[in-house]
Write a structure and sequence with these properties.
By secondary structure, this protein is of the alpha/beta class. The chain has 15 helices and 18 strands. The strands form four sheets. It has a six-stranded antiparallel barrel with strand order 11-12-16-15-14-17.
């Protein structure tokens, strides 16, 4: 009888007592990994000392790579090699000081048996918080059990130290979530409930199309809604290709692009331009973005899309400037008109309305944005909505407010209707070279003061969920705004948000994404009504809804 040659597997050594393994997921772009390594290294040193103070040893599971100038896991392939040599029962800390691609480590964490802890530093400059929230959302979607912690000072934060000790000794740490209440336990006004249910019935009967220009932007597993969960909401994907967008962009004429550019200038948008393509924002970049805007609208019209999402970085970044200017225009009611091609019938596309766009092709934001758009349009409320990163937060140093103020800051574009001054308060600056070799204009502004509804749709236990709450946008002195911009990314649009009845740590403990969806209402009472109508529509579509926090006055829902 023939004998088979069995594969030779790496011998796994069980970690020593009180030994914990550390992994660090990084960016797919090596330029970003190299620039950000110093921040990660400093964070790891502090975290190692904090673990040591608890009587344990934190040991890196993969080395610093001298040739590449960093110690991040820089690809899914590399991550698989790393995890193949980690004992499946070893305690693992995923330490993140910067943005990371979750799919670099998700495969290993999904099959890991030992306790998992995700940790981020509380920093605006280095978006470890954003990276960790994305990983948390991805782990939640994948059904992986994990604990999570964060701090601005690993060594002197007593609460962090106590929680860290709990995880090290028990393999699990939990947070209070008493700010969360299921919609079924909230008294919903009949009028808004009826509207939400009617809008849900319309979408279920008439159905809607979500145009997706390639899935999986930046490894965001949590941003992909499986068809078997999306379709029961009445929404179906039209799977489009970035290559089609690239090709259609090339077919748009120079004169058409110049008309869009001229419209922006006439409506007050300013562009910070220069002459060097490598480092400056140039007219070529802007005009190419104007062509992409026209191309995106024509493709959306051709396929009958109710909402679209462009992948944004991987893929298009190698052949076109960033899509930010496109996204900002699409999400705004007041925007440059686009006509169809002769073959499409010589008509203005999506006249007088936004074409809701979900940045970074985050399908959870796409579904949320479509629901929001329909609810607000039916209620006569502002329809412009967008996602933002939960980038960072800090106490206001200007003395304007005693409330904790979040920095909501999406990586490049928000609708100008959200900004102080509208288009006249909108500035285009070049995307950072580290991320976008071919540049492209951002759509930058300061979000105007007012009342907003925030929300997030996510996948958990193979079902769709929505967390929703209320917040206010505060206006801070320009000096404080500049401090916050300079502490994060000054080329990007910023929103100073105060979440009602949801503290910093409550938001971090519960939120299942790096993204949060926001939309304005005309006033406080209208915002409450819009929240109920939106929550009712989502619930009628089969989404499990949680109402988070309190009303503006601090009263419970």
């Amino acid at each position: 009888m023939a004998e088979y040659k069995l594969p030779k597997l790496a011998k796994l050594t069980k970690p020593k007592a009180k030994q914990v393994m550390l992994v660090a997921s990084g960016d797919l772009r090596q330029s970003a990994n190299k620039v950000c390594w110093a921040a990660q290294e400093a964070m790891e040193q502090q975290l190692t000392a904090a673990v040591k103070a608890c009587g344990y040893d934190l040991v890196r599971a993969h080395p610093y790579k001298q040739a590449q100038g960093h110690g991040f896991i820089g690809s899914q392939q590399e991550g698989m090699k790393v995890f193949a040599e980690i004992h499946p029962d070893a305690p693992i800390v995923v330490a993140e000081a910067v943005w990371q691609y979750s799919h670099h480590v998700l495969h290993g964490l999904a099959s890991h048996r030992g306790p998992i802890l995700t940790v981020a530093n509380w920093s605006g400059q280095w978006p470890g918080l954003v990276g960790m929230l994305n990983l948390n959302g991805s782990l939640t979607k994948a059904g992986v059990k994990y604990s999570t912690l964060w701090s601005e000072d690993f060594l002197n934060d007593k609460a962090f130290g106590k929680n860290l000790k709990t995880w090290l000794t028990k393999g699990k740490v939990t947070h209070k979530l008493d700010h969360v209440k299921p919609l079924a336990k909230v008294k919903t006004p009949a009028k808004e409930k009826k509207l939400g249910e009617a809008l849900a019935e319309q979408m279920l009967r008439e159905k809607a199309i979500m145009g997706v220009f390639d899935e999986g932007c930046m490894g965001m597993f949590n941003a992909i809604i499986p068809d078997h969960l999306l379709n029961p909401t009445g929404v179906y994907k039209e799977r489009l290709s970035q290559s089609a967008l690239f090709a259609e962009t090339g077919r748009v004429g120079d004169d058409e692009a110049k008309r869009v550019y001229r419209w922006l200038l006439e409506h007050g948008m300013q562009f910070r331009t220069g002459r060097r393509e490598e480092t400056d924002l140039t007219e070529w970049q802007i005009l190419t973005q104007c062509k992409m805007y026209i191309a995106a609208m024509r493709i959306a019209d051709e396929f009958g899309c109710d909402t679209i999402g462009i992948q944004y970085q991987q893929g298009l970044k190698d052949c076109l400037p960033a899509s930010d200017l496109v996204e900002g225009m699409l999400n705004n009611s007041e925007r440059p008109p686009v006509t169809a091609t002769h073959a499409q019938g010589d008509r203005q596309l999506y006249r007088g309305n936004p074409l809701p766009h979900f940045n970074e092709v985050d399908e959870c934001a796409g579904l949320d944005g479509l629901i929001t758009y329909r609810v607000h349009k039916a209620m006569g409320q502002p329809v412009e909505n967008t996602l933002h990163d939960i980038r960072w937060g800090d106490a206001d140093r200007s003395g304007t407010t005693d409330e904790y103020v979040w920095v909501f800051e999406i990586s490049g574009a928000a609708p100008p209707a959200h900004f102080i001054g509208g288009w006249k308060g909108t500035v285009g600056e070049r995307q950072p070279v580290m991320y976008f070799r071919l540049g492209g204009s951002t759509v930058k502004g300061i979000s105007r003061p007012g009342e907003i509804v925030w929300s997030r749709i996510y996948v958990e236990d193979d079902a769709l969920h929505m967390d929703i709450g209320r917040a206010g946008v505060v206006e801070l002195p320009l000096e404080e705004t500049k401090r916050r911009w300079n502490s994060t990314t000054p080329q990007w649009p910023i929103m100073h948000a105060v979440t009602y009845g949801v503290s910093r740590d409550q938001m971090m403990a519960k939120h299942k994404s790096n993204h949060v969806q926001v939309v304005y209402a005309k006033n406080d009472k209208d915002a409450d009504k819009a929240l109920f109508a939106k929550a009712s529509m989502a619930a009628a579509l089969g989404i499990s809804v949680n109402v988070c926090g309190t009303k503006k006055n601090g009263k419970a829902w």
